[in-house]
Amino acid sequence: MKKIGVLTSGGDSPGMNPAIRAVVRKAIFHNLEVYGIYGGYAGLVSGNIKKLELGSVGDIIHRGGTMLYSARLPEFKNKEVQQKAIEQLKNHGIEGLVVIGGDGSYRGAKALTEQGFPCVGVPGTIDNDIPGTEFTIGFDTALNTVIDAIDKIRDTATSHERTFVIEVMGRDAGDIALWAGLAGGAETILIPEENYDMDEIAERLKKGSERGKKHSIIVVAEGVCSGVEFGKQLNEKTHFDTRVSVLGHIQRGGSPTAFDRVLASRLGARAVELLIEGKGGRAVGIEKNHLVDYDIIEALDKKHTLDLDLFKLSKELSI
Ligand code: ADP
Q1: Which CATH number fits domain 142-252: 3.40.50.261, 3.10.20.30, 1.20.1290.10, 3.40.50.460?
Q2: Residue ranges per domain, the chain?
Q3: Which protein residue's CA is at the shortest distance from atom 14 of ligand 1?
Q4: Is the CB of residue 17 less than 8 Å from the CB of residue 66?
Q5: Separation of 99 CA from ligand 1 center, angstroms?
Q6: Residue nearest (by alpha carbon) to ligand 1 atom 10
Q7: What is the DSSP letter of 124?
Q8: How many H-runs (helices) and E-runs (strands) does the chain carry?
Q9: Domain 142-252 in the same topology as domain 3-138+256-301
Q10: Which residues surround ligand 1 with Cβ inside 6 Å?
Q11: Whether this model's pTM surpasses 0.90
Q12: Cα 190 from Cα 204, distance rounded (Å)
């Protein structure tokens, strides 16, 4: 393999930049040429492809977002569109592609691989919902953003003796809600993987108030219901002065944490090694702090599993 490409696709996540940097530097270290594809699969199909040098990825390790931009291209599900993408890659002499993104982006990479073009997936999403890796790039940064917000909300909640419902991202996965709720000391965490009982939540709030608690924090994953909706249900059930805060897209931005930078550097570099070893159609991940890789096609049939022991612990610690 002499020339490889790299793109970022789908929802952006903090840490995509250090991942791009790792791909580019590792490739050049091994005397490969590396091409940046700008604007995800849309840029690939339209041929927005430029050669990257060592200096192209200078000064990005600490920046959120992605210097290659991201996009969504629903038509990429069509075989003809995928063929166009492969033509563009071949026109540039590119023989392998690193795709940094979430599970939708993996499906695009899987489709190209099935058509004979080797791709390696790197898990870049704040949601932590990719099977085959304990952590995705951007999850830790998003968590820290949420915890920062919870700490600030806690201050004002205490001053006014209020109950706060905080809605966080995560699509169908409860990881952000669970980890941030545990780290932020939330009284209640609602995740899509577990049903909730409104009577039990109301009872916990009442008990907390009776023993002199000045505030309560409830973290709701967006995959359960909207924070506003939950706030309404809670208001109907209790007399607590409740406010709702929807954190939204601040969770996607910001300078990547040290953890995400190191993870992105390791996974991005490993993706290049796999292409050099002639192993296309793989996805990289981390398990028990070891790098792993697995078949990208099989990976998508598996389901991401949330750590339910953590959920149990969060309940035990928030009595
Ligand atoms: P994420 O990668 O963050 O999950 P999306 O689900 O929006 O984000 O997917 C990103 C892009 O990947 C889509 O806009 C589309 O171009 C491509 N994609 C998603 N699903 C498929 C699929 N089944 N086949 C081919 N390409 C897909």
Answers
A1: 3.40.50.460
A2: 3-138+256-301, 142-252
A3: 72
A4: yes
A5: 11
A6: 10
A7: B
A8: 11, 11
A9: yes
A10: 9-11, 41, 72-74, 76-77, 101-105, 107-108, 111, 125
A11: yes
A12: 14
Catalytic positions:
127
What is the distance in A from the centroid of ligand 1 to the CA of 159?
45
Q: What's the pLDDT at 215? A: 86
State both tokens at 18: 């250090």
* DSSP category for residue 137: B
Determine which helix (DSSP H) or strand (DSSP E) holds 49, and give its type and residue range: strand 49-52
Question: Given 3.30.565.10, 3.40.50.450, 3.30.9.10, 1.10.8.60, which CATH number is that of 3-138+256-301?
Answer: 3.40.50.450
Q: How far apart are CA 110 and CA 228, in angstroms?
A: 38
Give the position, in ligand 1's atom list, of the atom nearest the Cα of 72.
14
Predicted local confidence at residue 298, as pLDDT? 84
Residue 277 CB burial class (10 angstroms; 0-12, 13-18, ≥19): exposed
CA of 101 to the centre of ligand 1 (A): 9
Tokens at residue 76, please? Answer: 């990429």
160: its two tokens: 């006014």
Q: What is the percentage of the chain residues whose pLDDT exceeds 70? A: 100
pLDDT of 75 strictly over 90: yes
**What distance in angstroms lies between residue 111's CA and the mean position of ligand 1's atoms?**
11
171: Cα within 13 Å, side-chain hemisphere: 13
- 42 Cα nearest atom in ligand 1: 16
What distances in angstroms separate CA 5 from CA 1, 21, 37, 156, one per listed residue?
11, 12, 7, 48
